[in-house]
Amino acid sequence: MKLKQNDVVVFFGDSVTDTCHQVKQDYPYGSGYVNMVDSHINTNYCDLNVRVWNKGINGNRTKDLVARVKEDVLDLHPNMVFILIGVNDAWRSYDQNDPTSVEQFVKNYKTILDAIRAADTTTQIVMMSPFIIPSVEWVLNFKDDLDEKTKAVIDLAKEYQIPLIPLHELMPQYDQKLPGMVSFDGVHPSVVGHALIAQQIIQYLLG
Question: In angstroms, how far is the first alpha carbon of the chain from the final one?
Fold first, then answer.
């Protein structure tokens, strides 16, 4: 069990993390995997008094996380931070002709990691690789771009010796077993997709 008494856990990312938590005041954890993880923790380990924060924002890229890492992560003094970011860094090159180079992506990601470690060396960081569901054809338009950024995430996890949850492998594998049930558009998880992500996080926390 990696969770301890009074731990603060932050989930930092984009819309996959957000799941409308910002626009629903009575739904602070959103409707996705963060909500599921929080529910599991506080149902089964309520005596630990763990505080979960959803700090995902729809449409965010690595540059946006750099801009808000102090307010949305450091100022909360977390014991553990889960980071899931990258799909919009690739997607914007396709739908808005606003690319993020791999070099800039790596620089941004390193800035985030360095800021967290500089604030508190005891904070545990867990990286989750960005993913798409290749069986949904339109996402293939930016798959090569995302593949480069996913490799960068894997390399950064090794360089910083940070645990990595390989969603880029797991989610397409789940899609093969459950065709059409993991994501409705190839980017955003369905309820089933969110449950699968939550399962990976819970397994990590309990390991």
Answer: 6
